Structures are given as C-alpha cells and as structure tokens.
Amino acid sequence: MKWIIDRFEEKIAIIENEITKEKKEVNTSLLPTSIHEGSILLYQNNKYILSEKEEDQKRKEIEERFKKLRNHP
User: Fold this and answer.
1) Which positions ≥6 away from 1 have C-beta within 8 Å?
2) CA 21, 23, 24, 27: dihedral to nearest 10 degrees?
3) Sequence-separated (6 or more) residues with CB below 8 Å from residue 7
4) What is the pLDDT of residues 12-23, one digit of tens each?
5) Per-residue model confidence (pLDDT) at position 73
6) Which end of the chain has a smaller Cβ tally under 10 Å, C or N?
C-alpha cells in the first residue's frame, strides 16, 4: 500500500493513501528518519519504507505537467 506524507504535527505525521485518500496519523518514531512532506512510503511487512524511486517518478510526472502547462498557448 502506498502512502504520501501530507504534513507533520509535532511528532505525528499525517499520511494519505494515494488511492483511497484515507488519512492516518502515525508517530514519526515508526517512520524512516529521512522523510519530508511529500515523501512516498510503502507499507510492507508491518512497517513503512521510504520509496525514493516512487518519489523521483512522481516528481518527474509533476515536472512534465508543468512543462506542458507552460508550453500551452
């Protein structure tokens, strides 16, 4: 299952399921240390794993959308 970090509130991360848009509160002690808003997490084997590959892919998709918008008359 894929989750995106929406925001932080003290030691709690608000994460959102990419498909269902369900939101959850997760203690940051249960998450990888190098996360930030917008990080993509995979939930596997009862733990959250940072997916840098998914995050890079998402960033490239967004950049492409902006390029198309800028070049649109």
Assistant:
1) 17, 42, 43
2) 100
3) 13, 14, 37
4) 999 999 999 999
5) 64
6) C
SS3 25: strand
CB 15 within 8 A of CB 2: no
Contact 4, 20 (CB under 8 A): no
Percent of the chain with pLDDT over 90: 67
How far apart (Å, rounded) are the C-alpha atoms in residues 29 and 20? Answer: 24
Query: What's the token pair of residue 4?
Result: 């995106």
Distance CA 38, CA 16 (A): 10
Q: What are phi and psi of 61, to 5 degrees?
A: -60, -45
What confidence score (pLDDT) does residue 72 get?
Answer: 72
